[in-house]
Specification:
This protein has two helices and 17 strands. The chain has about 300 residues and is mainly beta. It has one domain: Autotransporter beta-domain (Lipocalin), CATH 2.40.128. The strands form two sheets. It has a twelve-stranded antiparallel beta barrel. Strand 15 and strand 16 form a beta hairpin. The termini are far apart.
């Protein structure tokens, strides 16, 4: 009977510890976050930079004096290489700046994030003409990738959950699955993708797996060799609960549905894009965390 008593005691101890640890930084929307977004069309290579920000606010429903206002920023190098007509490789290297204002004071963690590598395989890539001479272009890719723990990950054992959420990296080797489908009919088009991230554990803490789906509609206006494309889109994200010592962390996980508006411009081989996302519906951390404004801007050279 003794082994069972020890297991029960350990379970209760971890559960009580987690209940205290998740008091403020329960969102888990920083280091565990993953957003691929639409990638540019390119002939052989593309290289560029992206800047994104995400803001959240948390108030504990059982104690309104415990709160957290989080502002996460990422400056990222990204690039792509077409190996042949079927294969392309993508790479993303972020630098993360995570700032939190809580009832315990202000926290700032910044540093190199985790390198992401993705290999895409083209299932479909064709252009056809309709009877009305409308050009229909379609591309369908499936991808596999890894997120390598290159980022800083040094957690406080007294505050494992909250410190893990604010680290520039996650300390784990994670796996990525993705599909993307692009459809254009003359100057109108849709770019969509599905992404699933399988997280592993580090220091007994594991961010929950994440699923996201995006769809952007656009209209391209040609200006000689340049173009401008207003975009409007939808974004859905589902976050599985996080775990510590293989036990579910209370009040983590959830889902969100956001709307997006932006614009993409192309000047010869240089592309500039900007978009903003606002929540339409959300249920994060048992409604204790609210997603505020998100945004992204990129500058990319394709050739």
């Amino acid at each position: 009977m003794k082994p069972y008593i020890l297991k029960i005691a350990l379970f209760l101890l971890i559960s009580l510890t987690l209940k205290n640890l998740v008091a403020c930084d329960i969102c888990g929307c920083s280091s565990g976050n993953y957003f691929l977004g639409p990638t540019p069309q390119f002939n052989t290579y593309f290289i560029g930079t992206r800047y994104s920000f995400r803001s959240f606010s948390t108030v504990i429903k059982t104690d309104n004096e415990q709160y957290s206002k989080d502002f996460y920023q990422t400056a990222e190098l990204w690039g792509g290489l077409k190996i042949n007509q079927r294969f392309q490789a993508l790479a993303f290297l972020p630098y993360n700046i995570n700032h939190s204002k809580t009832d315990d004071g202000n926290k700032l963690n910044e540093g190199l994030g985790d390198l992401t590598l993705i290999g895409n395989y083209s299932i479909l890539d064709k252009v056809t003409l309709t009877k009305e001479n409308a050009a229909v272009s379609q591309q369908l890719y499936i991808g596999l990738g890894v997120k390598v723990p290159t980022g800083q990950y040094s957690i406080n054992t007294d505050e494992i959950v909250s410190s893990a959420n604010s680290q520039p990296g996650t300390g784990s080797l994670d796996y990525l699955l993705s599909t993307s489908y692009n459809l254009t009919i003359n100057n109108w088009g849709i770019a969509s993708n599905l992404n699933y991230k399988v997280n592993q554990s580090a220091s007994d803490f594991r961010f929950g797996n994440r699923f996201s789906a995006t769809a952007f509609g656009f209209r391209t206006f040609e200006l000689k060799k340049n173009s401008i494309s207003p975009t409007v889109g939808l974004f859905y994200e589902n976050l599985h609960p996080s775990e510590f010592a293989k036990i579910k962390v209370e009040s983590t996980g959830g889902n969100a549905f956001l709307g997006s508006i932006g614009i993409e411009t192309r000047i010869k081989k240089l592309s500039l894009g900007i978009n903003a996302q606002l929540p339409i519906a959300q249920n994060i951390s048992d409604l204790q965390t609210k997603i505020n404004l998100r945004g992204m801007v990129h500058l990319t050279y394709t050739f």
